[in-house]
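Please decode residue identities from the backbone states below.
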């Protein structure tokens, strides 16, 4: 049978011992199939991009320096992209060990790039007020904004929230990323926003066509709403950081904040409380020093009066 371009492509994708064969094997493995849908989609995208460039190469000849070079080239896109690729390659090559394609993984001891950024920046109170002024209660933009800020959840969870999740004075949430179940009390401001929202189905938020938002479409749409408010360097995810900052400034503990945000590790929320505690303690220290200085000055004046007598 004459080989067509499609036949040749299929042959390359499944050539024994190739990276293509490893990718196919991994996609069929429990380690991949048991992942959550969002994680699975993200990992598949990274693997397919890697596979497109290196799929016909033999796994057995892949050495540490080759992996380092591949990851370093990805660094041109950014350190986060490089680190994400490295993370996936470690999983992929570990699977190659498990199924006997190689004896040891050449990626095991390769270190991640250092990230010199805190990621998505939180919104300031001025920026929050600016958005609220542009998008009044009753608008879809304000509804999205309120859900993000007052539930402190990720975009993937906010776009799946609906009226059926309201239980008395709270909203039930099952986080898509972690599977964590939460019951979040409805803030009075969010209650007013929900009361003014138009109900067109079960979901709080839908597209102009009345269909559910995808994360990508929602992120792009919300970015447009930010631009309309004159806010050009903030994101939907930044509001998930603003919420714990507000909670920390209100004196909430790391445990209390985690009960709302759903963070499993207190380390992820402690920096919010540390920052709030630092400011509060610094103000207390300055006030104490000021009081002590006033008492010292008063004592000095009294001593002078006593000596004059």
């Amino acid at each position: 049978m004459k080989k067509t371009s499609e036949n040749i492509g299929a042959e390359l994708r499944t050539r024994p011992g190739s990276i293509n064969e490893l990718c196919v094997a991994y996609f069929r493995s429990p380690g991949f199939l048991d992942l959550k849908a969002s994680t699975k989609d993200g990992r598949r995208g990274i693997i397919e991009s890697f596979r497109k460039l290196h799929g016909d190469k033999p796994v057995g000849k892949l050495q540490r320096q080759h992996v380092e070079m591949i990851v370093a080239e990805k660094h041109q896109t950014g350190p986060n992209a490089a680190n994400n690729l490295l993370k996936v390659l470690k999983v992929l090559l570990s699977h190659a060990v498990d199924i006997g394609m190689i004896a040891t993984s050449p990626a095991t001891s390769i270190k991640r790039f250092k990230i010199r950024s805190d990621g998505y920046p939180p919104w300031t109170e001025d920026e929050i007020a600016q958005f609220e002024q542009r998008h009044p209660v009753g608008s879809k933009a304000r509804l999205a904004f309120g859900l993000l800020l007052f539930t402190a959840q990720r975009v993937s969870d906010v776009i799946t929230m609906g009226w059926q999740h309201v239980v008395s004075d709270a909203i039930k949430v099952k986080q898509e990323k972690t599977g964590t179940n939460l019951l979040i009390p409805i803030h009075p401001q969010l209650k007013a926003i929900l009361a003014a929202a138009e109900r067109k189905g079960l979901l709080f938020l839908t597209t102009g066509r009345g269909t559910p938002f995808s994360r990508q479409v929602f992120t792009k749409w919300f970015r447009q709403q930010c631009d309309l408010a004159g806010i050009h360097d903030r994101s939907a995810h930044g509001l998930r950081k603003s919420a714990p900052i507000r909670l920390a400034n209100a004196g909430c503990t790391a445990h209390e904040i985690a009960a709302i945000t759903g963070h499993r590790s207190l380390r992820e929320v402690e920096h919010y409380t540390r920052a709030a505690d630092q400011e509060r303690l610094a103000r207390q220290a300055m006030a104490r020093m000021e009081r002590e200085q006033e008492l010292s000055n008063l004592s000095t004046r009294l001593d002078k009066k006593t000596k004059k007598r």
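Observation: The mean pLDDT is 89.
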